[in-house]
Amino acid sequence: MDPAPTSGALAPSPVLSRRRNHRTVDRVAQILELVAREHDGLGLTEIAHRVGAPISSIQGLVNGLAAVGYLSEQGRRFVLGPAPYVLNLLAGRPPVRVVRHDDLETLHGMTGCTVLLGVMVGRDVIYIDYATDSPRHAYATETRIHRPLIRTATGRVLLANLDKRELYAYLNGLDTEEQGYVDGFLQELTAIRTDDLATTQGHMNPDVWAVATPVREEGRVVAAVGLAATPGEMDGRQNQLGQILRTQIRSLSHRTLHP
């Protein structure tokens, strides 16, 4: 398990810096995500307010995104356009193909835990499907809340399967609060890779423990599935639950990915 976070933990390598963000790309991504979250869309003034930028600097980006189909204007409000869906069609696959919703429901029935399917988006993990009786976990999943990779079991599994350069760049880019988790993660890194299991005990929320395993498609890690429960529900069972989870997810690898 990770020890309690310590302030000022050193990143593993001062040489490898994090991959640099591009201000314009960041702003475009922010606009698209904001609009995607609003069923009725957003007006230009609302977008500028939420982005924290003057309308004059946002208008060109919004108009440009609308011109190429990433946004659509409906009654002076902008909604997500067809272009993002077309990209997914061109790619010919959803983010995760081997794990289906009924697999998560099966795991939920077997373990009694919340089951979460997470993917890495930038420097965070986002849950794209779940099976749970917990309104809190349902809310976190359905609203696509970003969670720090280093503080979630699903995120740690995804981090452990990055190549060294990407991993070190991520760790070097963590803010002061999250740097406190680096030493514990690095101590567990070899075991996570060997066992295909990562655990957390209250790293994100003191009332939540979790265990996660990677999802592989054609040899590549594309997602992670995690089990989450209260400390009382998981204490003494975390390793056993991890083995059940790993066995179930590995058993799905026989599925054909191409129709």
From TrEMBL:
Keywords: DNA-binding, Transcription, Transcription regulation. Residues 22-82 form the HTH iclR-type domain. Coiled coil: none annotated. GO terms for biological process: negative regulation of DNA-templated transcription. InterPro entries: GAF-like_dom_sf, HTH_MetabolicPath_Reg, Tscrpt_reg_IclR_C, Tscrpt_reg_IclR_N, WH-like_DNA-bd_sf, WH_DNA-bd_sf. Residues 76-259 form the IclR-ED domain. GO terms for molecular function: DNA binding; DNA-binding transcription factor activity. It comes from the Bacteria. Pfam families: HTH_IclR, IclR_C. Signal peptide: none annotated. PANTHER family: HELIX-TURN-HELIX TRANSCRIPTIONAL REGULATOR, ICLR FAMILY (PTHR30136), HTH-TYPE TRANSCRIPTIONAL REGULATOR RV1719 (PTHR30136:SF35). This is Helix-turn-helix domain-containing protein.
